[in-house]
Specification:
single chain, globular, 174 residues
């Protein structure tokens, strides 16, 4: 086994990232202790609060895109092969209006399998998104769309297109 293979298996390197991504990740997480509780490589401009309350499916690496803000204080569950674009915000909790240090309880955010959340989108507390949901760039998702198989856009987000289940299966299976 070559040194590169040995290091790659140790770090669980993803080939689509350059080596500099992992050097920056190491520097910011291990030396500067930024996002120190996160156990997977993330972009140095991303912030993840309470990573221990994130439940991640297979092939999910939240925070690997630049500028992500993930607040999992009330819990976030992300399904298999879901992808977050740059500057996405997942906010599972809010603070009391009078006491900023007091957290207000809310149900967790649940995002289904094979979802894609576009650049600059924000998902607010208690939202549940079904499988194969696409959230357009800049959308503000304030309510749940549990049926899935749809494209959301706008502020507040609403369904702009339905996706046929057969069509989405063709997109997923090569």
């Amino acid at each position: 086994m070559t040194l590169k293979e040995r290091i790659g298996s140790w770090l669980k390197l993803r080939p689509e990232y350059g080596f500099s991504f992992y050097i920056c990740d190491f520097f910011f997480r291990k030396i500067l202790r930024q996002n120190k509780g996160v156990t997977w490589p993330i972009h140095y401009t991303s912030t993840i609060r309470c990573p221990e309350k994130l439940i991640l499916g297979e092939g999910v690496f939240p925070g690997d895109s630049p500028g992500n803000y993930i607040n999992a204080m009330n819990g976030i569950e992300i399904g298999d092969y879901t992808n977050l674009g740059p500057n996405v915000g997942l906010i599972s909790s809010n603070h009391d209006f009078n006491q900023n240090e007091k957290v207000v309880f809310a149900p967790p955010i649940v995002i289904g399998k094979n979802c894609w959340i576009g650049m600059g989108a924000v998902v607010l507390p208690g939202v549940r998104l079904g499988d194969n949901t696409i959230v357009g760039a800049g959308a503000i998702v304030t309510k749940s769309f549990e049926e899935g198989y749809c494209v959301l856009a706008g502020n507040p987000a609403s369904i702009i297109k339905r996706i046929e289940q057969n069509q989405s299966e063709k997109l997923v299976d090569p």
